[in-house]
Amino acid sequence: MKEKEIKTVDIPAQKIIEKAKEEKIEIVWDRFEAQQPQCGFGQLGICCRNCNMGPCRIDPFGDGPLKGVCGATADTIVARNIVRMIAGGAAAHSDHGRDIVETLELTAAGKAQGYEIKDEEKLRRLCEEYKINTKGKDKQKLAKELASEIMKEYGMVKGEIQFIQRAPEKRKKLWKKFGVLPRSVDREIVETMHRTHIGVDADYVNILLHGVRTALSDGWGGSMIATELSDVLFGTPVPVESTVNLGVLKEDMVNIIVHGHNPLLSEMIVKAASDKDLIKLAQKNGAKGINITGMCCTGNELLMRKGIPIAGNFLNQELAIITGAVEAMIVDYQCIMPSLPDVAKCYHTKIISTAPKAKFPGAEHIEFHEHKAVDIAKEIVKKAVENFPNRIPEKVMIPGKPIKLIAGFSVEAILKALGGTPQPLIDAIVAGKIRGAAGVVGCNNPKIPHDYGHVEQVKELIKNNILVVTTGCNAIATAKAGLMLPEAADLAGDGLKEICKALGIPPVLHMGSCVDISRILVLLAALANALKVDISDLPVAGSAPEWMSEKAVSIGVYVLSSGIFTVLGTVPPVLGSLAVTTLLTKDIEGVVGATFAVEPDPKKGAQLMIDHIEKKRKALGLS
Ligand code: BF8
User: Fold this and answer.
1) Residue 502 belongs to what domain range?
2) Does residue 321 sit in the same domain as residue 424?
3) Which of 96, 258, 261, 443 to mutate to test the pocket of ligand 1 (most atoms within 8 A of CB)?
4) In the beta sheet, which residues pair with residue 330?
5) Domain match, 159 and 215 both
6) CATH number assigned to the domain comprising residue 82
7) Where are the alpha helices (DSSP H) in 539-586?
8) 226 lines ligand 1 (CB under 6 A)
9) What is the CB neighbour count within 10 angstroms for residue 468?
10) Residue 623 has what pLDDT?
11) What 3-state class would DSSP assign to 470?
12) Whether 330 and 464 share a structural domain
């Protein structure tokens, strides 16, 4: 396949990869090549280094050791390794959520500079969900009480996390039956670490069931908290126009890229960039103004709520610096390559880290704190503005023009577009105009040509009348391919095209960052509740064509555990255990009503999803 020979299908990115080669800059694909062949034991998940009798490894061919020093088999080791990945991902999402809760609390106390409660209506709705008496209380008081209630959920002693109540009754009964209802956000992560310690849980089924519980504490817990409270603080997204790809950088402006995941700092950077004195300083330094753009999920957060242009997804991050046009890349946490300062050394770009929990050797660290948020944001923007005269014009190359897009499809926005209820969507599905819906999400991974898996799979799905909802790096990839414009409906099958044209929406709906996959859960729960069925009965499917992070493992497992058939485009490290592989791809159907499939070819992966959707339609008695 021709695409396999190239590193990316993102044309501006291709140009910058060439530039990197000419300028002898080492980038992710070079390091990927240098790692070949990658460790076979690691790929199969059969190496264990959980204690210092090891590291141990199991012989996949049966000629060498079949047990670790402690006696752990391949089944135990594979299960332990994968649940530790789930815990890593759940921790990342949930700790991000905790940071938002803390900021909400500080905002309520008037101690967070520059923050305000933007969506009071959602705040009140959430308070009601948490059974907080709202009568006669102002938003400050309510925010304080809500933050305090939600903070308890991180280490709760009794009961289950609140948002799990949003799931359909049948699903909750199933989770209860199998003992996987999450009891708190932190507890399940801690228990994963306990169970996978030497000499604790050795039963692979028992270990994996706890993996399900840990992942659910992310999807219906930490991630959902991050999404909902970000909406309270910064506003619930509504459809918004913007642009995407490396072409969003501007030759005549100070370019600042905000990269990472948490909107707490980046929202303030946007605010600081409109400061008159800083704009004047930029002009004094020879620029026309300050151009803020996003990268990865911090970019998605700003795009969704503010229409800030987005420069790219995970595999674009080094390339953005190589354009030579970036004055500062400001990073918070997650999915930030530690290589960025090395790449930046060859240009004038400043890499500025801001989170106490994520420092990068070679980067300048300006610590971010909410009580001085605006002042710190101004200080950072000033650094970028002052760096503009250091730009080396001969090294600048902005590769092409940005692509337009429409983002901002929160559940609230989707329901509004449908006239206030999910019924028109249900009617379109019942009539067969839309066969079903697919959530296509997740990372980039140099194991697959950049964006190829995302774009090809999504095109195939919409061609077959399947509405696609997306987040994270898939959202950015499909936007770059022009699939987030109403005109993209022309690439859809006749039924989906008709619905999109009638509603004026694209066939691919941007629902936000990776924590916002919780929005997809909420939408599915609303659909299932309206139809009085379980999520696993719906004609829907999930996919992560280019996944790579631990967060994606947690997402995959909570999506599956919520009843959604999920296709993985890269092979998870479980094949070293036939028992675990069979459980995840077959037997788990009997527990959660869904399975994983692994299919690296995105078109074949789409076909698996289409077949699954048709099977579900038939079971519901739909044509
Ligand atoms: O959280 S999709 S590479 S950027 S992990 Fe990271 Fe993966 Fe992109 Fe957003 Ni999600």
Assistant:
1) 413-619
2) no
3) 443
4) 258, 352
5) yes
6) 1.20.1270.30
7) 550-561, 578-582
8) no
9) 25
10) 78
11) strand
12) no
